[in-house]
Amino acid sequence: MKNTRKLFLIGLALVSMALISLRLPIKEGFFEMSKQLEIMNSAFRELNIFYVDPLSPGALMETGIAAMLKSLDPYTRYYPESKMEDVRFMSTGEYGGVGLSLNERWDGTFYVVDLKENAPAEQGGIKLGDNLIQIAGSNISHLDMSKIGELIKGTAGTDITLGIQKPSQKELVNITLTREKIKQPDVPYFGMISDSTGYLILSKFTRTATIEVRKALIQLTDSMGAKKIVFDLRGNGGGLLREAVNIVNLFVPKGQEVVSMRGKTPEWNKSYSTSQKALLPNIPLVILLDERSASASEIVAGTLQDIDRAVIIGQESFGKGLVQQTKKLAYGSRIKITVAKYYTASGRCVQRLHYDDRDDSGDARISADSTLVTYYTKNGRPVIEGRGVIPDIELKPQTQDYVIAGLINSGVFFDFVVTTCGDIEGSIDLDSFEINDRQWESFLQYTVEQFNDQELQNTDRIFPYEPLSKKLIIDLEEAMTEDGFIDSSELMSNLKTLIKPNLETDLKTHEDDIRQILGKEYVFHLENTSGVFKFELPKDLVTLEAISTLESGNYLQILSGNTNN
């Protein structure tokens, strides 16, 4: 132990000498940098020597680095050598695993919520709703989701044994699987949504994004007869900038500037333009956005809007106008650093939050409307900076009632379908499938029984079944207590009794919406992800608006600027 500590301190001393050497060059900021590093070094040394309990130097430093980076922005992050798989996944979408996704139940158990088709987990007999109890013979009840994910992932070709418990069964089944390279598709679905309109959704921008989008577009136009395209970027949080440029190039001829960057160092002051012949330079194009569309999604949508090449429909995008670059550090670790801001073709930056300007609570500020600069598209339409990408046709997001939100969060839909989907024989017709009265009554009974089960009521089951009025009553009670109205307890108790919800009544009130969500859950279990898209898209209001826009004169009017939309 003494020798280990001696070697550790010698190492720190050598580091200190190296840090001191930083002061030798006469360059602004070097002295202050070396000073602060020396302070951190000495604090680290004293902690290691004198702290009452044993310390893990690696874990301590990792925590310190993470806290330091958190003060900058949410995107600048440190990755130790053990997390290199996460870095690779961000750029490639590939990982070594068995092709399953987990969620945590109200009772702390972990269950399978998704299976990649033909991956080892599905081939090995694992089903949706199965409980994962053990990994390699060890119980996992004390672990969190991220740690479980790390244990399941590994090098392709290696084996892993999972202890699985089937629903309503006590027996534990050990299933040994051989890990494979799992690739999550960038384009999870494409198809026709009208006689002449093709649809594709892009979920992320990895190295294969352009290849997958190109293949989908070729099939839509050459084989399926698409004359118009709806390109769905809703929920797409971004990825590789180069892929965003290349995807714009599929719709825009060679030589068009797509995005430029400006950073603190000259190497990041650069621009990117289309370099290839466009695949579909003239096809009518609508892009769908929502509040979760960010980064590379905003580059694609923003520039295609700036040059009047596409109509944008949906909700205002997230507003991430920052560029990150991954740098190598010592001992196989890496750091992802925000190095620049990007600007779309018109010259605007979509960055919404200013992380260098925080309020008293530490939250990043949003620029006041009066300070925002207006830019203009190729045809002279005004677009503004600092607000994400504002759609040409803005639609309010569909909100969920607290009852439905509570049902989804509790896993009631999933659990019910797991126990009953075996009752449906054969394949289902996605064009006509709907929940029948027998299934509805069965779900109603199942949910009420679950909610009223005394054993479940005494657990931490996630079921935020509370109307807004009840929350306001609780806030009022706290305020009246603070103000000295101590005799209000009886009044508050009576009010709470009056607004006590009736689950069965509330379920019937929202029957139509609940039937639709339940139908979607059945489709997911029986027909996988592609089936869900086929089932949902004909009822999706944003998609329907896109079809209407493309099939009317409104599309060209918007692009020309001759409209108030």
Molecular structure report:
Strands 3, 4, 5, 6, 7 and 8 form a six-stranded antiparallel β-sheet that branches. A six-stranded mixed β-sheet has the order 10-11-12-15-16-23, with helices on both faces. Strands 1, 13, 14, 17 and 18 form a five-stranded antiparallel β-sheet that branches. The chain contains 19 helices and 23 strands. Helix 7 packs parallel to helix 8 (241-249) and helix 11 (412-420) packs across helix 17. Residues 1-26 have low confidence and may be disordered. The longest helix has 26 residues, at 511-536. Helices cover 39% and strands 20% of the residues. It has 565 residues and is an alpha+beta fold. It folds into four domains: 2-79; 94-183, Pdz3 Domain; 189-397, 2-enoyl-CoA Hydratase, Chain A, domain 1 (Alpha-Beta Complex); 402-465 and 501-544, no CATH class. The radius of gyration is 28 Å and the shape is globular. The chain starts with a helix and ends in a 5-residue tail after the last helix.
DSSP summary, beta strand count: 23
Distance between the termini: 73 Å
CATH topology of the largest domain: 2-enoyl-CoA Hydratase, Chain A, domain 1
CATH class placement of the largest domain: Alpha Beta
Q: Helical region count?
A: 19
| Model regions low in confidence, pLDDT < 50 over at least 5 residues | 1-26
Count the domains.
4
Indicate the topology.
Layout: H1 2-20, H2 30-50, H3 57-70, E1 77-79, H4 84-92, E2 94-97, E3 100-104, E4 110-115, H5 120-123, E5 131-135, E6 138-139, H6 145-152, E7 159-165, E8 173-178, E9 180-183, E10 189-192, E11 197-201, H7 209-223, E12 228-232, H8 241-249, E13 257-263, E14 270-273, E15 285-289, H9 296-306, E16 311-314, E17 322-328, E18 334-344, E19 353-358, E20 364-366, E21 374-376, E22 382-384, E23 393-394, H10 402-410, H11 412-420, H12 437-452, H13 454-457, H14 468-482, H15 489-498, H16 503-509, H17 511-536, H18 541-550, H19 554-560
Parallel strand pairs: 11-12, 12-15, 15-16, 16-23
Antiparallel strand pairs: 1-18, 2-9, 3-4, 4-5, 5-6, 5-7, 7-8, 10-11, 13-14, 13-18, 17-18, 19-20, 21-22
Helix pairs in contact: 1-2, 7-8, 8-9, 11-17, 14-15
